[in-house]
Amino acid sequence: MIDLTSLAVTAFAFFVVAVSPGPANISNAAVAMSFGRRTSLVYGAGLSCGLVFWGLVAASGMGAVLQSSLYVLMVLKLLGGLYLLWLAWQSGRSAMRRDAGKVSLPKKGRWFWRGLILNLSNPKSVIAWMAALSVGLGPDDGLASVAAATVVCIAVGFINNALYSLLFSVSGMMTGYRRFRRWIDGVVAGLFAIAGLGLIKSAFAR
Question: Taking the mean position of all CA atoms in its chain, how far away is CA 158?
Fold first, then answer.
């Protein structure tokens, strides 16, 4: 039998993790302010689907195997760190341009894939999933409880990304971004660079 209290605790724990300003949320906010609500919702859907992948990995028990597989995890972290550094370079290029109109924008159909790749490239997501699931689930919980907790967390992930898209695409946010675009893109570039270097550094940590 599924314990609704444990389910609520798991959902809240995952929401706290999901809403924190990590690379995915920062990039979603930047996309929303830059290109508007529709593009950001598509990008956020990609982020959410990437999160679903890591959720299924964690729920199936493969998350623990991945954490114990030193070289596989190292390669994933290196690839993820390099992708974040690439995003930092892209944001840095945008910050250096005075005219936003000169920036080459991805086609709309690519936004979903960019969001998907960003979350797939961050193996630390599986740690967040395992932490959230372990908060609400106990050793005696069966497959139904694990499945229910995973589905609820997936829903929380989609809601979180949609909220970021809706909040940062309001006219005031977009007007402010256009006014301070170079500063905002510079800060985003710095945050991506820090996250990328941190992920690469963690790949070699023992």
Answer: 11
How many CB atoms sit inside 10 A of residue 69's CB?
13
* pLDDT tens digit sequence for 107-122: 666 899 999 998 888 8
Structure-block tokens of residue 46? 């990609």
Sign of the Cα torsion 22, 28, 32, 37 reads negative
Residue 106 DSSP one-character state? P
Q: What's the predicted TM-score (pTM) here? A: 0.77
Q: Which amino acid is at 116?
A: L
Q: CA neighbours within 13 Å on the CB side: how many for 18? A: 30
Two structure tokens written together for 70: 């030193």
Asked whether the CA dihedral 6, 156, 80, 195 is positive or negative, the reply is negative
* Domain boundaries, given as residue ranges, for the chain: 4-203
* 197/132: higher pLDDT: 197
d(C-alpha 34, C-alpha 52), whole Å: 26
- State how far Cα 148 lies from the chain centre: 22
Are 120 and 79 spatial neighbours (Cβ–Cβ below 8 Å)? no
The Cα–Cα gap between 150 and 129 comes to: 9
Contact between 53 and 151 (Cβ < 8 Å): no
| Helix count and strand count (H, E) for the chain | 10, 0
